[in-house]
Amino acid sequence: MSKTELTTESWLQVLTVEDIPILGARVVQAAVGPIAIFRNSENEIFAVLDKCPHKGGPLSQGIVHGKSVTCPLHSWNIELSSGCAVPPDEGCAKSFQVKVDDGFIWLQITEIIAVHE
Predict the structure, then answer these.
(1) pLDDT at 117 over 90
(2) How many domains in the chain?
(3) 108, part of any domain
(4) Does any domain span residue 34?
(5) Is the dihedral of CA 81, 17, 30, 108 positive or negative?
(6) Disulfide engineering: 71 pairs with which of 47, 52, 61, 116, CB 3.0-4.6 Å?
(7) How many Cα atoms occupy the beta-carbon half-sphere of 32 within 13 Å?
(8) Mean of the pLDDT values across residues 81-90?
(9) CATH number of the domain encompassing residue 43
(10) Distance from C-alpha of 57 to C-alpha of 54, rounded to nearest angstrom
(11) What are phi and psi of 84, to 5 degrees?
(12) Does residue 14 fall inside a structural domain?
């Protein structure tokens, strides 16, 4: 067990870091809906519901820059750590806790199976 204290009871391994291109995303299907998992230029990993808070555009198809993604439909910028739109735009997409351990990406099970309104 690593210092991140992962247990298979509370976390689900979904991808490896190498599965996601730098400045790219991959989508995993979950009970809450499609989750976009992003990798930025500094190899940081983020997970956000794959629906822009504006019109539901696929964030996974957007352009990753810094710690944000630009929605491909209407160019809203979304902060990857929170899922919230950068002002002056308003609204948030659900963000998810992510752990990276030995190159594997893990999502917290209770977050991806619970439906959040």
Answers:
(1) no
(2) 1
(3) no
(4) yes
(5) negative
(6) 52
(7) 24
(8) 96
(9) 2.102.10.10
(10) 8
(11) -90, 145
(12) no
Range of the domain at 39: 22-95
For the record, the structure tokens of 9 come out as 């009871």
Q: Does position 7 have pLDDT exceeding 60, yes or no?
A: no
CA angle 34, 115, 110 (to 5 degrees): 90
Dihedral sign for Cα atoms in the order 42, 29, 112, 36: positive
Q: What is the pLDDT of residues 31-85, one digit of tens each?
A: 999 999 999 999 999 999 999 999 999 999 999 999 999 999 999 999 999 999 9
Assessment of whether the complete model's pTM goes beyond 0.85: yes
Q: Give the separation between CA 111 and CA 13, rounded to whole angstroms.
A: 13
Tokens of residue 71, six digits: 């929605």
- C-alpha span between 105 and 52 (Å, rounded): 22
